[in-house]
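chain below, 104 aa
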Amino acid sequence: MSFEHPDGDQIDLSAVLHALSDPQRRGIVAELAASEQPRPCGSYAPNITKSTRTHHFRVLRDAGLIEQWKEGTLKMSRLRRDDIDARFPGLLDSVLGSGVPVRS
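prediction:
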C-alpha cells in the first residue's frame, strides 16, 4: 500500500493551517518534531480511538505535513520538516513554540 503526498511545492498554506488547528494533530506534529526518527502511527495519541487517530493522520498527510509508508504491518510516519520549512519558513517553529496547547 502506498500513500499519496503532495509535492513540496504543492503544499497549500490553508491546508497546513487547517491541519494544525486541531490540538490532537498539533500534538502529533510536536511529537514528530521532537524526534527525527519515524514512528508507527499507533504510538501516538493513545487516548483517542484508532479511527479518530487515522483521520488525524490522513489530514496531516493530505496537508503535506507528514509522510507515511508501510513497514510490514506498521504504518510509519515522519514530519516533512524540510519541505514545510522550505515552503513556509518559520511556520512550524512559530506554531509549536507559540504556547498554544497541543492537546485539549
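The chain has one domain: 12-96. Helices lie at 13-20, 23-34, 50-63, 81-87, 91-96.
thats it, cya
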